[in-house]
Amino acid sequence: MTEIRVPETDEATDVFVDHRELLFGIVYNMLGSVADTEDVVQETWLSWTARGRGGDSPLDGIANPRAYLVRIAVNHALARRATISRRRETYVGPWLPEPLLTDAAAEDAALRGESVSMAMLVVLESLTPLERAVFVLNEVFGYPHTEIADILDRTPAAVRQVAHRAREHVHARRPLYDAHPRVRREATERFVEAALGGDIGALMEILAPDVTIWTDGGGNRRTAGLRPVRGRDKVVRFIDGFRSRGAALDLELRYEQANGDPAAVLFEGDSPYAVMVMDLTPEGDRVSDVYIVTNPEKLTHVRREER
Questions:
Q1: What does the pLDDT look like over 42-84, one tens digit per residue?
Q2: Pick from 90, 107, 142: which residue ends a domain?
Q3: The domain spanning residue 228 has which CATH number?
Q4: Pairing of strands 287-293, 207-216
Q5: Residue 55 burial (CB < 10 Å; 0-12/13-18/19+)?
Q6: I need a labelling partner for 189 at 20 to 30 A (CA). Which of 16, 41, 240, 296 fits?
Q7: What range defines the domain where residue 86 resides?
Q8: Total domains, the chain
């Protein structure tokens, strides 16, 4: 009987597949774009398999495949940031991260450890690419400074300085707090019901006085504003206009999980129309920020599941 030999590249493929979700999570938190993340993960795969040209296995000479793959992915992601920055220079209106719908089980804090909220992703946009990479690796994925130094080709001392600077910046813009998932879900449902139902009194009650609403339509939706709207009175007027303009459409509302937090997803038929995510005040009793993504190009990965 002829012996069947499994190519060495199969083992290398298995190694990559085993780490793909980790790579996706790190890169997505660095870029805030599902499409760009998928491109970077593909580039990482190509770099990985390129080591096997000439008949050798990509695993040859690699003592720690996980660390090697993360290093490739992070450096590809840093290079991709330049492309994203150029794209944003001509972007119409506020830019928000591309929402990533997650499983409902992500409500559990233990399962959300690697899921950065929409609000946090917005804050991370204000960091330099290097600061963001260090923050994501250290604060989100728990990499020590010594390992990050190897990934980024810098000294541990330099990485500690960058980490300290990034952490201070993030915490100044978004103090550490995390409302209970049930509180977030209830607040989201109260806000959405009041907003879509035109209940001005209920909206005034749930919105914080200095609430800000961000709408990202990319110039493709009339319902999106060209700049953030701040202040409860102005936000209420904007929401009422958003509701009125959408009233002519036959929209279906579904509650999902976006980036680990409760979200409202509006569908026009089978096509996603908007994803709405709310952030709460530290007390957890009012909505401090509303993020609405309506740009169709950022909703291509949102699917309407039959129930």
A1: 999 999 988 766 556 667 778 899 999 999 999 999 999 989 9
A2: 90
A3: 3.10.450.50
A4: parallel
A5: exposed
A6: 296
A7: 8-90
A8: 2
